[in-house]
Design goal:
globular, 7-stranded mixed beta sheet
């Protein structure tokens, strides 16, 4: 199959033929909202109803066609309805849909393929159907490995919506009612390095990675009871705004964890399987975690996730009753296996690196030309653009973020809101032409917003 399978369908996009949201979208949203509660901010801000997706194209029920800059929130990373992946799912949907955690031919092939592409030593695997469940399994595995029970995680990381995962993240948010009256015992949070907004700085104002590590060392000594099972982090923050730490951070953090006998747990649900141009985002820093979780891109939209630990810790998975009802069903395994094969066959990682560099170059130019773009960030196709009221004060510009999101969506760009940080996660198959098309829409929207707020 040609890796250009999606391009014909992408001709002429965006193509908007009604006001947005269209009448059918408004009616369908109103009907479903009678029953479905707790909708995402994305849907609340722009309630369209989608009917079809193919490659980088989304079509709503009013027949408006959009350029996809979100991959269905980091999920359909190899394009909507990739023919090979859809066929693989269909085959097993007609043959064997579920059999708990018994072995199947497609599961055998998937596990062997996973071991081939993951860093050496990460070969003890359990499969699940959502990211939160994989993270919960990682928490239980970490406790079983060292018979320790405390966890350290970082400000503005996100790990899921079940109770253990929630305790690893911010529990009071402006857009979410408190997850509980208190954080569970043994869960602690610390600041993580943000090069644009550093907590710890050197004399020249630049970020001081060593100061973060020193703080962690002190916190472990003074703020815990010396019973820390794992340090849990996203390699790059997704919900927090596509924020990457300095290049020296993770190697230094891993060394600290080794010194303290603490497991390094990398939650790669959002970043893994090619999103940043590597199989794992942690590969950028040559760091092999003790525990990883995979999801989102893993099955290109089919609900399949994984928790993987190093071989030396494999016995711990046997001790936590790790299996699940749906995890590793044949359809899920087929989706994940086909997704890995597509990444290899279509040279997806190479495309992500090349086009990702083009994204960053273009975004840097936009930053220089626009007074409200304070910072741009990213690796591969995990990208962010931070809007500020003043580049000197770096005051977040949430009002502009919301308007830019809505204006770009109205022009036919389906993407992700995140307050003052514009998040972009295009399908990994995207080429430079369509990358520029999406950035043109964003830049046009930013220009309009700047005029509305008196910056031009």
């Amino acid at each position: 199959m040609s890796k250009d399978w999606w391009k014909k369908d992408a001709e002429g996009i965006p193509h908007i033929i009604t006001e947005l949201p269209g009448s059918k979208s408004r009616k369908m949203h109103a009907n479903t909202s009678k029953y479905v509660r707790g909708l995402s901010s994305q849907v609340q801000q722009f309630p369209v109803a989608f009917e079809e997706g193919y490659g980088i194209t989304l079509t709503d029920v009013d027949n408006n066609r959009y350029l996809d800059f979100s991959s269905g929130i980091y999920v359909a990373s190899l394009g909507h309805c990739h023919p090979k992946i859809s066929e693989a799912i269909s085959k097993w949907a007609k043959k064997l849909m579920n059999c708990h955690d018994f072995a199947t031919p497609v599961k055998e092939k998937l596990l062997e393929k996973m071991v081939d592409v993951l860093p050496k030593g990460l070969n003890s695997i359990q499969l699940y159907s959502d990211g939160s469940t994989a993270v919960e399994a990682g928490i239980r595995a970490a406790r079983a490995i060292g018979n320790r029970h405390e966890f350290i995680s970082c400000y503005r990381d996100f790990h899921g919506k079940t109770m253990g995962a929630v305790n690893l993240a911010q529990m009071i948010r402006g857009d979410v009612f408190s997850y509980g009256p208190t954080r569970s015992a043994g869960f602690y949070m610390v600041p993580r390095p943000d090069p644009y907004r550093p907590v710890f700085k050197k004399a020249d104002g630049s970020i001081d990675t060593d100061a973060y590590i020193d703080f962690y060392r002190q916190f472990i000594q003074e703020g815990t009871v010396g019973n820390v099972a794992a340090f849990v982090l996203e390699p790059a923050q997704g919900w927090g705004g596509s924020i990457f730490p300095p290049e020296d951070f993770f190697p230094k953090l891993q060394q600290l964890c080794r010194e303290k006998g603490i497991l390094f747990f990398a939650d790669e649900v959002l970043t893994g399987m090619g999103r940043t141009g590597e199989w794992l985002c942690m590969n950028h820093w040559d760091v092999v975690p003790d525990i990883i979780t995979l999801g989102k891109s893993f099955g290109n939209g089919f609900p399949v996730t994984a928790m993987v630990v190093k071989e030396e810790h494999a016995d711990a998975i046997d001790r936590i009753s790790a299996s699940s009802s749906y995890g590793g069903n044949p359809m899920a395994c087929a989706a994940a296996l086909a997704s890995i094969e597509v990444i290899e066959e279509e040279q997806i990682l190479e495309n992500v690196r090349e086009v990702g560099a083009h994204f960053m170059q273009r975004m840097q130019q936009m930053k220089e030309n626009h007074p409200i773009i304070g910072d741009v960030k990213g690796k591969g196709f995990l990208l962010g653009m931070e809007l500020v009221k003043d580049k000197a004060t770096k005051e977040p510009f949430n009002e502009a973020g919301k308007l830019v999101y809505q204006k770009a969506f109205a022009k036919g760009l389906a993407w992700i809101p995140a307050g003052h940080i514009l998040r972009m996660s295009p399908p990994l198959i995207m080429d430079k032409k369509h990358a520029d098309m999406g950035l043109d829409i964003i830049e046009e929207s930013i220009t309009e917003v700047e005029k509305e707020f008196g910056y031009q």
